[in-house]
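F.,

This is the one I mentioned.
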């Protein structure tokens, strides 16, 4: 065979083999699966953005950004299961020790204006279904406070002893009612946003006049007599919060913006006192006095928090105003907290979208976790994720017994009252 034919045979063979390999690669090759990298939360990989909500089936601790732990009270890992069981249903505790916790139904629905009485295990409340006021005793007995019906009450402000209340109605009608004497007094409709002094002998209020630039901050006796106008509010009424201090020296806060992410807070007294102001690192200030009368817990929002409400604490007495002004690292609203001594018990949404401070209603359908915050050290303890008759719980009010053994909350969707053993 001559050399030319040999070369042609070799070229032909190479072409046939190449075409065969190409056909195999395109149509008959079996792919080897590639194992993706491990992105388990708490290890390598990326956790979900706080504004996007938690992944399905995982409860995220909003403080650490990690799943609630199998080691109760810590973060990372998985929700605990029954001992000796692999997988299965999570364990539910009867006490708040950091995981899933039983929420017991105290009153099923339709209550507002809840006020703890005595040891904090009895309650006054308004039942919007039958328009009456009741007291629920610690033994579970329901007692009517009055035989009278109060239709369509919008807001209830209780005296410290729970024996008297100021009722506000949607048409701006205001009533002072003494339940011990069944005595009713109609207050001027210009009065609103009431707050009792700690002794119950006086009230602070806003006076919203029918005249332009004639709104006032005032004080009075609870029945509306002896009215005293303290400071003109003009058009700044929405920036004034009536908040009576335990020592009766301060009756309100006034907030004034200083740029996008800072505010000046003025403490207003009854007699024109010149208190030092407080500078806070955000907007939307709302505060509450601690029982010691020296400290204030407050909420603000800023760009740094993604316009989510953040809790802070500060000194607010005399020359100490503004000292120890520290963030508590908790994203929630002050209305969802109860103060007991130097502890705050707060319902904290599992996650909050950016801008939640502007539209609090976005959290109405987001389940809450419950935390205890030591206001002297700033330390936070995850207490419970409530489980029970409802599929999820979102608290509108939080209360705690005087001995701090039981936490109570009102569910926003049902208006029911629930308890958690601490």
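My design for it:
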């Amino acid at each position: 065979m001559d050399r030319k034919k040999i070369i042609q045979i070799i070229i032909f063979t190479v072409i046939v083999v190449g075409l065969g390999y190409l056909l195999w690669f395109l149509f008959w090759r079996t792919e080897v699966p590639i194992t993706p990298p491990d992105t388990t939360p708490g290890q390598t990989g990326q956790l979900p953005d706080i504004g996007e909500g938690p992944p399905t089936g995982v409860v995220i601790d909003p403080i650490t950004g990690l799943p609630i732990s199998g080691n109760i009270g810590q973060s990372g890992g998985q929700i605990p299961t029954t001992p000796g069981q692999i997988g299965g249903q999570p364990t539910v505790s009867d006490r708040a020790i950091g995981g899933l916790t039983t929420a017991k139904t105290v009153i099923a629905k339709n209550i507002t204006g809840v006020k703890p009485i005595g040891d904090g295990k009895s309650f006054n409340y308004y039942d919007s279904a039958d328009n009456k006021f009741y007291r629920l005793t610690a033994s579970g007995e329901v007692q009517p406070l009055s035989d009278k019906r109060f239709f369509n009450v919008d807001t209830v402000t209780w005296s410290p002893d729970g024996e008297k209340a100021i009722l506000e109605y949607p048409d701006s009608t205001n009533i002072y009612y003494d339940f011990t004497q069944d005595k009713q007094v109609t207050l001027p409709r210009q009065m609103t946003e009431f707050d009792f002094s700690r002794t119950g002998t006086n009230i602070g209020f806003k006076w919203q006049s029918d005249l332009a630039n004639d709104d006032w901050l005032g004080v009075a006796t609870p029945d509306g007599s002896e009215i005293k106008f303290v400071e003109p509010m003009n058009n700044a009424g929405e920036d004034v919060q009536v908040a009576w201090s335990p020592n009766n020296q301060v009756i309100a806060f006034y907030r004034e913006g200083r740029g996008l992410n800072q505010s000046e807070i003025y403490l207003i007294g009854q007699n024109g006192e010149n208190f030092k102001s407080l500078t806070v690192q955000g907007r939307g200030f709302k505060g509450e006095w601690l029982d010691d009368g020296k400290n204030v817990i407050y909420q603000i929002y800023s760009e740094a928090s993604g316009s989510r409400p953040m809790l802070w604490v500060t000194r607010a007495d005399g020359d100490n105003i503004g000292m120890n002004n520290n963030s508590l690292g908790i994203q929630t609203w002050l209305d969802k907290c109860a103060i007991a001594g130097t502890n705050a018990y707060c319902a904290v949404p599992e996650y909050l979208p950016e801008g939640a401070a502007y539209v609090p209603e976005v959290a109405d359908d987001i389940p809450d976790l419950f935390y205890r915050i030591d206001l002297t050290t700033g330390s936070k303890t995850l207490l419970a994720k409530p489980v029970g008759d409802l599929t999820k719980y979102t608290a509108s009010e939080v209360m705690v017994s005087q001995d701090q053994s039981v936490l109570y909350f009102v569910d926003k969707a049902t208006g029911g009252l629930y308890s958690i053993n601490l």
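The domain at 160-327 is CATH 2.130.10.120 (Methylamine Dehydrogenase; Chain H).

Talk soon.
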